[in-house]
Amino acid sequence: MNKPHRGTIFVEDANILAHDAFAGEQYILRVHAPRCAQSAEPGSFAHIQCDPLLPLRRPLSIMRSDPRAGWVEFLYKAVGEGTRLLARRAVGETLSIMGPIGKPFQPHGDRPLALLLGGGVGIPPMVFLASMLRANPAYQPVVFMGSEAPFPFRTRPSGIMLPGMPDGVIATMPLLEDWGVPCRLTSLSGFSGCHEGYVTDLARLWLDALEGPARHRVEIFACGPHPMLEACARLAVEYHLPCQVSLEEFMACAVGGCAGCVVEVRTDQGPAMKRVCVDGPVFDAKTVF
Questions:
Q1: Residue 276 is inside which H or E element, if any?
Q2: For residue 7, what pLDDT band results from cuts at 50, 70 and 90?
Q3: Which of 75, 93, 112, 141 is the most exposed place for a label (fewest CB within 10 A)?
Q4: Are 30 and 37 in contact (CB under 8 A)?
């Protein structure tokens, strides 16, 4: 997971293979884009032209990729003109996509207990990262997801035990359950089987239930709204854990030319302005929060 991320951005006419709608104006889009699929890594995204009459593209995080079959999959929420136009696109149509773009998550072998925290449209990179880590027996991913909108999948009770979970907190994502990846869901919307609270609340319960030596093997990975990422950064500091976060910013060019997605990052040489699209979107949490 340490390949150079520059010089591997492709523009493809991608055929829509599946486009499924879920509650809360959420959609899962699968397209045939073999060059993107071949190079995609957890944390990378694609810049998609939502409609031929709308030239400005929209960035969508990649949720899954199959290099052999040549497809990539995205989860998105229709919230503005671009994504609402994208939601109208049908199977068999063609989309212009540019990707994969961005610096991916970089797990460290000395921290094999990977705590993955996803909130809302920050869920896709966590699914992608879980799919990669589960293929390596050296890693043990654990996933907590939070959403106030209905989850874009039908939840089911988990058969995988997790330490520290309150009674009745059993809802999981079926895909992760089938992969053998422990997962629990949280929400303030009262969904059945979900924890009433934030993903960081569940993370704290799980961390507190770990034995001391096990906690030293944990690394946090997170993607979601800024307040959630700030809370994840504080949690990492409290428990003395490394934490990588994927930022979500408005992007125009998405290839580092316009500098429209710049954020301030702390470096050894002092504050520096970094572009989320190509210098990120993944950053060390302590440098941005």
A1: none
A2: low
A3: 93
A4: no
